[in-house]
Amino acid sequence: MSRTCTESDIRRWRASTVDDMTAARRVDRVRKRSIKVEAKVRLLELALSMVDLTTLEGRDSPERVRALCRKAQRPYASRPELPSCAAVCVYPSMVPHARAALGEGSPIKIAAVATAFPSGQLPIALKLEEVRRAVQLGADEIDMVINRGAFLAGEYARVFDEIVATKDACGEAHLKVILETGELGTLDNVAAASRLAMAAGADFIKTSTGKIQPAATFPVVLVMLEAIREHFLETGTKIGMKPAGGIRTAKQALHYLALLAETLGADWLTPDLWRFGASSLVNDLLRQLLWRAEGYYQSPRRFSVD
Amino acid sequence: MDNPAPPHPPDTRHRLRLAGALELSPSIEKHPVTIHERYGHFINGELVPGQGDESFATVNPATGATLAQVAAAGQADVDAAVAAARKAHDEVWSKLSGLERGKYLFRIARRLQERSREFSVLETIDNGKPIRETRDVDLPLAAAHFFYYAGWADKLSYATRGAPPRSLGVAAQVIPWNFPMLMLAWKIAPALATGNTVVLKPAETTPLSAMLFAELLQEVELPPGVVNIVNGAGATGNLVVSHPGVNKVAFTGSTEVGRAIMRTIAGAGKRATMELGGKGANIIYADAALDQAVEGCVDGIFFNQGHVCCAGSRLLLEESIAEDFIARLKRRVETLRVGDPLDKNTDVGAINSQGQLRTIERYLEIGREEGATVWQGGACEPPGSGYFVRPTILTGVQQSDTVVREEIFGPVLACLTFRTPDEAIAKANDSEYGLACGVWSEKTSKVFRTAHALNCGVVWANGYNLFDPSSPFGGVRHSGFGREGGIAGLWPYLEA
Amino acid sequence: MRLTVEKTFKLYVGGQFIRSESGRVLRVRSREGSSVNVCSASRKDFRDAMDLARKAQPGWAARTGYNRGQILYRLAEMLESRARALPTEADDVTQAIDRAVHHAGWSDKITALLSSLNPVASAHVNYSMLRPLGVVVAAPDVADGLTGMVEALCAATVMGNTVHLFVPATLGELAAALSEALATCDMPGGVVNVMTADVPELLGWANHHDDLDGIYVARAAVSAETLAGIEREAARVMRRVIVVAGAAAPASPQVLEHLAEVKTVWMSS
User: Fold this and answer.
1) C255:B447 CB<8 A
2) Domains annotated on chain B, with CATH
3) Nearest CA in chain B to C227
């Protein structure tokens, strides 16, 4: 399917502006949601099932990836009934190790960051080659970065075309498009980049690489969810959302889910349409779940360091 | 809207399942509060039972259950309160240095912060407004108001621009039920900072927080008589404002009652401040940040069940976005939780009284008769008992309709359209009221031009229902006169 | 003996000298003791004047403070040039002229003095400024003579209002002299209307005209009973009633503020 972006598309995407102070008020209101008892357990378990357990360090090793896969499969050994995570998220070079650990046909997806993550500063041909290799190696999902330099220079069509090309390179693999919102500077840019990425073929839009501050923030996620809503109302296509970077506490996760439920509704409360890009979040989710189940607030020592 | 719908209104093809998507368990605020069986008055530093036999009940509007019996003050009680205030003014308060007066106000502010949760719970029980609002808005702002005016007490000569600052004497203050503690703070803080003493009458449906405040005043050892509180309904209010020993009248409430008070005190030489009704217009231009403007509408009309004098009860939409905007607004309303005010997740609480509930229902009936389409939404069904109204949006209304001209004082939004800024401004100004308006646009010059052309006391540009002690608030025309908040809030309590 | 030509003093409305539509002319004693004829404004005259004042108000308020100040100063110049001919005490004349000069200087300053940038506890830009009441009726104290009239009209106009000056027929000659100065000082028509009349009666009619925004009255201009009646009636539409002591001292900023409304604007930033 050929995708193009016209001047009028760009104008339309750019037209959806955001008032920052009121957006902040909106998220403050969601963050006042008091999520307790049964609802809390239900949403904590849901959150656990939505985690893309991530390691993206220069010092990553096959052993570390294996540990991550184990954790994703079975977050807490003595509570096997807890859901497994949605995916592990690694560099392309680590995909074979993850595949070996998880096995073929694992319900846990392997996401590979590609397109010269995190900066995206490589010629497009090399970026596409990296995507194709990652898919060959067994990646189910590709987390690409947009060309922020081109976006900020106003070369929207170029950003668009690169996403289209990346989507083609993905083949069957799902494409998550990282906007790196911390570099976009304004919520207006976040809104426009979200619309652009979805029109270009993103299956998910994702806030951040985790390498730039600020990473995921509530106002940014709100604006991206609103863009997903616009896209859905116009096309009927449900695009997924992945905040990443800086999500460490269960409370943050619960409030993100509240924001999701109040912006996009019940249909999005599934790992098919929402992921948390995180690592230490899992332990805090477990801690809260065990506290509810056992009545003791667990020491951090009780959970594996991943 | 009289224009035919566009061929593909965006949201008819694809629906979001919003209502009920966020299932939450009850989360009830359990901070303990004491509610006595009977309340009297606070006169000359003492909690007294009252000299007459008359009393009335105050009820929890979320359940309809009676909370307490409250004495209704008669002439003897009011005489005693005014006499105590006069004595305190002449002998103590007006002679105290500004710094010392300020220190009392700082003390009040501090204690109010420290006991904030207790006040919030009591206010929610007596008023019906959500605990989220009493906890996050009413009480923090009330404390901030005392802090703000505390700092003015020793700097009044700067506020009068050269005139020697002189207090007026005894201020009679009558406050409404929609923000009991906040209105108490708006009244008492500037009065005390300027050296006046106070006889305050809370609304008869929400007397409890003021009586708890009386206990707080004893705690901070405010000199007896500086603040006196008498309970009762309109008759008591009338005794208070018409009392010959009173120098200043400050009232917040309906225009109808404000008018009656002004008639009562005509020719008496009393200074007055009136903060009355409104029918605020919230203007949304097509180039607004639409999703935030939706939030502004929610803040404007569903905050505090719409029991807000400055509520944005008229939505003026640029025609080209009207349909889309109303669809956005309805989607947002589907996530508002109507229910138990003590539940921390409740967005829209109980209507304050059965009387007010009937008023709102009567207006909805009138709206229907005059041709309005009535839409009601929310995340859940309201509770079976108590007084509740779901957030309501009226479309198909015109400038001449009753529901567009009169203040409903409930969660009811009337939607109209316009084509040009001039038309928007003309429609917004087409009201006897003139309290507050909102304007939404991402184009700065249009925002300024519109904001300055609106005939009202407060304009929110890309926002609504924002309050701050440093920001003067008040209306023009039928919305009253005088300002509360800021430097301008001192002037009505000082000799000109 | 030569028969003197009698002049009938007219109303000054909308920049024109007009007779009352009612045809009412009162014969009053002049300062020199002779009889003079003074037109007496009717309810209908007030209604017509009200339309003109309403129409003139936005334009007047929209002028720069600098421009309004120059016009008020021009009024002082015009009064000075005819000082000796003005039918009042010499002290009254000089005080009135100096009063116009005083207020001329306020026009581009009072807003700065009474406005504020409010330091709210959020990132909003929040400012309060003054906007005019609109159209005001002013009834100065007869005993304050020309100074009373000038004080009232200057206080009202310097705040951006348009004003109807109500003067009893006994001061008709002086009112007409003031009107002539107003007609020649570049003041746009309708900004100040000078109406000689039975003041309490015309105040009553004005108070029944719901387009009127404010009534500025010197305490001694009407009886206590009339004042109470004015306040009672004004309450019907929350009309502002500004009671001043008199014109011995110029209006303080606090009094001037009563001739305006504080308007607060919150800007998201």
Assistant:
1) no
2) 10-276+481-493 (3.40.605.10), 281-468 (3.40.309.10)
3) B267
Rg (CA), chain B: 23
Q: Which of A18, A20, A21 to mutate to test the interface with C (most CBs of C within 10 A)?
A: A21
Contact of B167 with B137, CB cutoff 8 Å: no
What is the side-by-side strand order in the sheet with C240-244?
C16-18, C11-13, C192-196, C162-167, C135-139, C214-218, C240-244
- Residue of B27, B132, B335 lying closest to A262 (CB–CB): B335
Largest Cα separation within chain C, whole Å, is 82
- Whether residue B295 and residue A25 make contact (CB cut-off 8 A), yes or no, is yes
Contact B470, B171 (CB under 8 A): no
* SS3 (DSSP) at B216: helix
Residues B401 and B408: their CA atoms lie apart, in Å, by 12
Residue where the block lists tokens 């109209």: B416
Q: What is the CA angle A124-A130-A132, rounded to 5?
A: 105
State how far the Cα of B464 lies from the Cα of B293, in Å rounded to an integer. 9
Contacts of B34 (CB under 8 A, 6+ apart): none
- Smallest Cα distance from B310 to chain A, Å: 18
Minimum CA–CA partner of A234 in chain B: B10
Domain borders along chain C are 8-268
From the list B334, B338, B361, the residue with the least C-alpha distance to B349 is: B338
pTM of the model: 0.95
Cα gap B288→C241, rounded to integer Å: 40
Q: Which CATH architecture group holds A7-302?
A: Alpha-Beta Barrel (3.20)
- What pLDDT score does B13 carry? 65
Q: Yes or no: say if A91 and A114 are a contact pair by the CB < 8 Å rule.
A: no
Contact call for residues C195 and C41 (beta carbons, < 8 A): yes
CB interface of A with B, residues 223-282, below 8 Å: 226, 229, 232-234, 236, 257-258, 261-262, 264-267, 269
Tens of pLDDT, residues A173-201: 999 999 999 999 999 999 999 999 999 99
Catalytic residue list contains B275: yes
The domains of chain A are located at 7-302
Residue C38 pLDDT class (50, 70, 90 cuts): very high
Per-residue pLDDT of A16-75, as tens digits, reads 899 999 999 999 999 999 999 999 999 999 999 999 999 999 999 999 999 999 999 999
CA dist., res. B379 & res. C69, Å (int): 59
Chain A contact set for C269 (CB, 8 A): 21
User: B419 burial class (0-12, 13-18, 19+ CB within 10 angstroms)?
Assistant: exposed
Angle, helix A250-264 to helix A281-294, in steps of 10 degrees: 100
- The answer, yes or no, to whether residue B151 has pLDDT greater than 50, is yes
Q: Does C124 touch chain A (CB under 8 A)?
A: yes
Nearest CA in chain C to A23: C268
ipTM surpasses cut 0.90: yes
**Burial class of residue A296, CB neighbours in 10 A (0-12, 13-18, 19+):** exposed
Question: What per-residue confidence (pLDDT) applies to C32?
Answer: 80
Residue B408 half-sphere exposure toward CB, CA atoms < 13 A: 34
- Angstrom distance (rounded) from CA B142 to CA B179: 10
- The closest of B292, B247, B310, B297 to B273, measured between CA atoms, is B247
Question: What's the CATH number of domain C8-268, 3.40.605.10, 3.30.160.40, 3.40.1260.10, 3.40.190.10?
Answer: 3.40.605.10
